[in-house]
């Protein structure tokens, strides 16, 4: 029997402002941390923006969003996930009043998205803390960041909440454990960052996220606010009970963030971790009350799974994965060393549903690859059967999870159009169904070309998943 996804399932794609918009100083915007990371997470940041940073121009979505949205609508999107650049709204991050030109840009983008039949799914903070906040306050290490973020979130909810019904507070919030600058705007180099400051920063982000959820629900109880984490199922490398426990401990590092978002309290295992580290956090009674404002749904990115072992002699790390982990010897890897594991997505969906019993949303899933532009029937395209295979396999796994009883609201592929990579700051690591003519050296026309996968995704959406077989 051919099965489909639920009626009203939200199909679309996901992007981030810092990877697509460009125009990093246009209309009053000031730099974010991304503008001083020309090699992504592969090298320390520069003191100021440098011309070799591809994200300064991105793919010029700031000026081309109308035509790009037309392409998304052609694929049949019913949802488009994008982020608001905090430093477009509050250029330094700590101002009292917002930048009207920045607000006006997102008014236009939201209206254009809705006009094409797509619901906006908006991320408030997607790896782009205003640079001033990072340098002046050391990012989320400073408790004052909570107030700055609350002002920013309230501004967005009040300005856009009549049209944007789905919100995410922080992108992949659990990544701060491994990339404190990228995820937490923490300017202190990570090899000098104390555990106490790291976990205090995490606490401040969690409080800010819960506060934003409270503010949204006060403004309009109909707004849906979700958390967003990296999902990475961790398998024991062997049946050795020590490996099984090691895998559980690693998974709990990721569970902890959504546990707090969904349950409103710190789980016992996280409290033990803090005790074992000798970390005593500054947690006020007001913080504890704020954390009780839990999210409406859980969203996540899913790209790979990893293995874990307690044996120090078996710690052979996978390549290209900012969260670490041992490469699974039973799986194939992408060109960037990420293990391809469609079955892991079904596992994640079932685990998350069983654990939190909240609606789920896959807001990132995709394959980065080195695409080759070729001419077919007089048109430039990419014959990316590898991406189609990846897409179909993961959607079949998601559909199986729905058949298992999981409540899944939607799926947004990362990214529907080629963007500058967050982790490597390359253009050659391409995810899109739409090819963008820009190269790692910054050359290119920025012209857009439909890949073979463009039609494949269009057909899946049109059939609501029935064409997956």
SSE layout and pairings?
Elements: E1 10-14, H1 17-20, H2 61-75, E2 79-83, H3 86-89, H4 100-115, E3 119-125, H5 131-137, H6 144-160, E4 166-170, H7 180-184, H8 195-219, E5 224-231, E6 234-236, H9 241-263, H10 268-277, H11 285-291, E7 297-302, E8 306-308, H12 342-356, E9 360-364, E10 374-376, E11 379-381, H13 385-403, E12 408-414, E13 434-436, E14 448-450, H14 452-462
Parallel strand pairs: 1-2, 1-12, 2-3, 3-4, 4-5, 5-7, 6-8, 7-9, 9-12
Antiparallel strand pairs: 10-11, 13-14
Helix pairs in contact: 2-4, 6-8, 8-11, 12-13, 13-14
Index terms:
469 residues; alpha/beta; TIM Barrel; two-stranded parallel ribbon; 14 strands; 38% helix; 14% strand
Give the distance, in angstroms, between the N- and C-terminal Cα atoms.
9 Å
Average pLDDT reading:
95
Major β-sheet annotation: 8 strands, parallel, barrel
Q: Specify Rg, calculated over alpha carbons.
A: 21 Å
Structure description:
The protein has 469 residues and is α/β, with parallel strands linked by helices. The chain has a single domain, classed as Alpha-Beta Barrel (TIM Barrel), CATH 3.20.20.80. Helix content is 38%, strand content 14%. The chain has 14 helices and 14 strands. An 8-stranded parallel beta barrel has the order 1-2-3-4-5-7-9-12, surrounded by 4 helices. It has a two-stranded parallel ribbon with strand order 6-8. Strands 10-11 form a two-stranded antiparallel ribbon. Helix 2 runs parallel beside helix 4, helix 6 runs parallel beside helix 8 and helix 8 packs across helix 11. The longest helix has 25 residues. The radius of gyration is 21 Å and the shape is globular. The model has no long low-confidence stretch (mean pLDDT 95).
């Amino acid at each position: 029997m051919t099965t489909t996804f639920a009626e009203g399932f939200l199909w679309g794609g996901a992007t981030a402002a810092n990877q697509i918009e460009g125009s990093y100083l246009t209309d009053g915007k000031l730099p974010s941390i991304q503008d001083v990371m020309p090699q992504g997470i592969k090298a320390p940041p520069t003191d100021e923006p440098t011309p070799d940073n591809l994200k300064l121009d991105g793919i010029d979505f700031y000026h081309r969003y109308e035509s790009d949205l037309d392409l998304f609508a052609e694929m049949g999107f019913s949802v488009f996930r994008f982020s608001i650049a905090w430093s477009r709204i509050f250029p330094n991050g700590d101002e009292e009043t917002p930048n009207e030109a920045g607000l006006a840009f997102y008014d236009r983008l939201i209206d254009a998205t809705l006009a094409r039949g797509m619901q906006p799914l908006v991320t408030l903070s997607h790896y782009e803390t205003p640079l001033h906040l990072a340098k002046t306050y050391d990012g989320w290490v400073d408790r004052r960041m909570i107030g700055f973020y609350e002002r920013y979130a309230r501004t967005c909810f009040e300005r856009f909440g009549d049209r944007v019904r789905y919100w995410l507070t922080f992108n992949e919030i659990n990544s701060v454990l491994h990339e404190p600058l990228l995820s937490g705007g923490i300017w202190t180099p990570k090899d000098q960052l104390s555990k106490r400051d790291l976990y205090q920063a995490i606490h401040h982000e969690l409080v800010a996220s819960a506060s934003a959820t409270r503010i949204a629900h006060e403004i309009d109880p109909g707004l849906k606010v979700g958390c967003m984490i990296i999902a990475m199922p961790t398998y024991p490398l062997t049946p050795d009970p020590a490996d099984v426990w090691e895998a559980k401990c690693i998974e709990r590092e990721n569970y902890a963030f959504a546990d707090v978002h969904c349950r409103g309290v710190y789980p016992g295992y996280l409290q033990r971790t803090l005790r074992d580290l000798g970390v005593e956090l500054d947690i006020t009674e007001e913080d504890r009350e704020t954390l009780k404002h839990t999210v409406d749904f859980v969203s996540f990115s899913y790209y790979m799974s990893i293995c874990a072992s307690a044996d120090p002699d078996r710690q052979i790390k996978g390549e290209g994965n900012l969260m670490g982990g041992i490469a699974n010897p039973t799986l194939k890897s992408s060109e960037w060393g990420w293990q391809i594991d469609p079955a892991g997505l079904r596992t994640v969906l079932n685990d998350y549903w069983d654990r939190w019993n909240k609606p789920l949303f896959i807001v990132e899933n995709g394959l980065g690859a080195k695409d080759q532009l070729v001419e077919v029937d007089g048109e430039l395209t990419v014959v990316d059967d590898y991406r189609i295979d990846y897409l179909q396999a993961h959607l079949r796994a998601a559909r199986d999870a729905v058949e298992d009883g999981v409540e899944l609201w939607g799926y947004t592929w990362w990214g529907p159009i080629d963007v500058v990579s967050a982790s490597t700051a390359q253009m050659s690591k391409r995810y899109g169904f739409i090819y963008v003519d820009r190269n790692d050296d910054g050359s290119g026309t920025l012209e857009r070309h439909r890949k073979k996968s463009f039609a494949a995704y269009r057909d899946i959406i049109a059939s609501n998943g029935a064409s997956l077989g």
